[in-house]
């Protein structure tokens, strides 16, 4: 009986793991070279370097799930961390 309970618990833990995607909202910021930014649920802004490759027609408030990596590059926007999108789910 203990073995079945252990296996069931293990299965539940494994099946509930996150898929690595983060939910963000698209926001338009037309200030000092900024355009489309990604806003995380905690309010943090991210500046994507390749948004148009994944979202050709962005809309204000559009929610997407994506994976990204930090890209420490120079930007005149300076409103958030510069990132490169690696995968996106709508």
Question: Describe it for me?
Answer:
The protein is α+β, with helices and mostly antiparallel strands and 90 residues long. The protein has a single domain (20-89), classed as OB fold (Dihydrolipoamide Acetyltransferase, E2P), CATH 2.40.50. It has 2 helices and 5 strands. A hairpin with a 7-residue loop joins strand 1 (22-28) and strand 2. The longest helix is centred in the first third of the chain and has 14 residues, at 2-15. It is globular.
Structural class: alpha+beta
- Total E-strand runs: 5
SS field, number of helical segments: 2
- Assign the CATH superfamily: NigD-like N-terminal OB domain
| Gyration radius over CA | 18 Å
CATH-derived architecture: Beta Barrel
How far is the N terminus from the C terminus? 42 Å
CATH topology descriptor: OB fold (Dihydrolipoamide Acetyltransferase, E2P)
Helix content percent band: 10-25%
CATH class annotation = Mainly Beta
Question: What is the overall shape?
Answer: globular
- Tell me about the largest β-sheet: 5 strands, mixed, barrel
Number of domains: 1
Mean pLDDT: 85
Strand order across the largest sheet: 1-2-3-5-4
Question: Which ranges are low-confidence, i.e. pLDDT below 50, for 5 or more consecutive residues?
Answer: 8-17
Strand content: 35-45%
Could you spell the SSE succession in H and E letters?
HEEEHEE
